[in-house]
Structure formats: C-alpha cells, structure tokens
Amino acid sequence: MKIGFIGLGKMGFSMVERLLRDGHQVVATDLNKEAVKEAEGKGAIAAGSLGDLVNRLDMPRAIWLMVPSGKPTEETISSLIPFLSAGDILLDGGNSFYKDSIKRAQKLNEHNISFIDVGTSGGIWGLKVGYCLMIGGEKEAFQSLEPIFRTLAPADGYAYVGKNGAGHFVKMVHNGIEYALLQAYSEGFEIMEAKKEFELNLARISHLWNQGSVIRSWLLELAENVFRQNPHLRTIRGYIEDSGEGRWTVAEAIGENVPAPVITLSLLERFRSRQQESFSNKVISALRHAFGGHGVKKE
Asked: Which of 30, 41, 189, 268 has the fewest CB atoms within 10 Å around its CB?
C-alpha cells in the first residue's frame, strides 16, 4: 500500500522503515529535514511540506500522524484539512487524549474524512519486534488499512477495539498499568539493593525471574540488560517524567467511580521523584520531634 507519514522521531522513523521493508510505499515528511533525507535514503519518498505530501499520494489517501500529542497534533490536522478530499483517512498514532480524538473525528467527519486513533506501543524496539496497535474508528476504514497494521504489528499484535476514541482510551489505560508495573518492579529491586548482606546480583535475578516465574515480562528482560550494564545505577538520577496518560487514567477512574489505588500511587510517586527535598517529609520529621522527642536531622 501507499501511505503518507508525518513525524519521523524515534518511533515514527522506525515505523516507516518497517513499512518500507515489507514493500509498502511511504511518503514521509518532518520538520527535521535531516530525518526526511535519512528516510529517503531508506527508500521513502521525501515530501517538503504537508501539501507536497498530500499531492504525492493516490486518492483516497491514507496519512499517519506520529507527532507529539496536544497542540502539535491539533495544528497538524488543521493544516492538513484544506489539502484533503472526501474519502481520505487520517490516522493518529501518538498518545493523544481519547476525548480529543473523538472531537477530531467529528471535525473531520464534517469534511467526509475518516479518522482512526491508533494507540501504539512498542517504543524503540518496534522496528525489530513490531508494535502493539489498539485501533479505534470506523470499522470500514480500519479494514481498508489492515495491510499496514499487519506489517507494523507482530502476529496478533493489532486489534479493532471500537469506535473513535476507543483506541486511544485503551492505550491510556495500558500506560496507566505500565506506571504501576514499573513502580512495583522498582520497589522490589530497591528492597534487594538495600539488603547488602546478600550481595544480590540484580541482573542475574532479573534473568531468573523470567524463567517460568509468574512475574516474568519484557520489562524484566530490559531490567536484566540495564543491571548488567550498570549494576547499581550510580550514573542515573531518579527523576521520572510523566507524559500524561497516567494522569488521564487516574482522572477517568475517578470519573467512573473506579478505585485504582495502585495506578494512582504510582503516578504520585513520579511527582515525588522530582523533589530534591520533600517539604511533607520535613513536616513529618518536625512533628515526630514535637510529640515524641524523636531526633531531627539538620541541613
């Protein structure tokens, strides 16, 4: 198939390369012209602008967006609309908020343009092992693009999950679960790192746990590699960003009256990681001294 691709970051570029390897034609563009040139070297058709990209595609067109969520996605879609025609399909593979995707689908529907929201997971490893694709939108549009999804995903690695917004909703919850999994693993490894008397080898334990254990996972494979390269993580600062999906998942849980304490706490722990000194801990220390005479460490 022939498809347009907007956004050649780490994931976007690898997705284009995977499509090209399987014989698809890709027209690619990005604000980074060096990335466009590199994609052209892999076999993509380079486009210098959004209009140029649209003109190089056959009708009805299919265009995949892989740009940052929020304003960049909104501006890109708005800029594309004047170049598009009825019957075209626009896909958003970024981490957009599902309610924004519903609004964008409605906006594009006014122009008889289909919109597909594709929750995409796989990170920088997707080129090699494929991407997990959670797909929402009109089922007919989804079916027409299945050759693209089959190439990008591993076996059984893509699914139509529902109408517009469903794809990004499922990906949002997926990332909320990811927050909690990362927190659980991190706490377990910290307990073992603190137990100095056993001199535990965390890389070896990560490998061990992946051999039939109930907590085996790809994250443990990555942990094994990390601990082999940097056994005590001495060169890494424990500062953790969040890209929004955890917040959205927690807000959705509250809105639906669903208790989600583990995911919520894992999000709050990310906030804590950015504090050089926690004021709340200072308060606790001061109050323990006040009521019980417990020692206070001075700065």
From this structure: 41
